[in-house]
């Protein structure tokens, strides 16, 4: 009977530790969005090395980067929402609104 109790406890722990499909999807989208942003940053660095400056802030900055430097640049995150791109004090920043789709909340992905 001790074996049965241990198996039951193990199953209960697995149930509590297993992510729901929604949590798993959120983790996938977050990881994929980080990958997208990192690729965009690599292309931004190459563009700056070539032209001496980053593309201008705003939606057109990533589009310009995509058109003139690399088709691998994404202007949307993994949730298919527009990324926010800005250059402040010479430093580029790309932001995804995250899973909730709202900028300025705790789940934003900023790089």
**Number of alpha- plus pi-helical segments:** 3
The shape, in one word, is: elongated
The residue ranges in which pLDDT falls below 50 over 5 or more consecutive positions are: none
Structural class label: mainly alpha
The description of the largest β-sheet is:
3 strands, antiparallel
* Spatial ordering of strands, largest sheet: 1-2-3
Helix content: 40-55%
Characterization of the model:
The chain is mainly alpha-helical and 111 residues long. The protein is 51% helix and 12% strand. β1 and β2 form a beta hairpin. The longest helix is centred in the first third of the chain and has 31 residues. The radius of gyration is 20 Å and the shape is elongated. The chain starts with a helix and ends with a strand.
Short description:
51% of the residues lie in helices and 12% in strands.
Keywords, please?
three-stranded antiparallel beta sheet, elongated, single chain, about 10% strand, mainly alpha, 3 helices, about 110 residues
Topology of helices and strands:
Layout: H1 2-17, H2 21-51, H3 59-68, E1 84-88, E2 91-96, E3 109-110
Antiparallel strand pairs: 1-2, 2-3
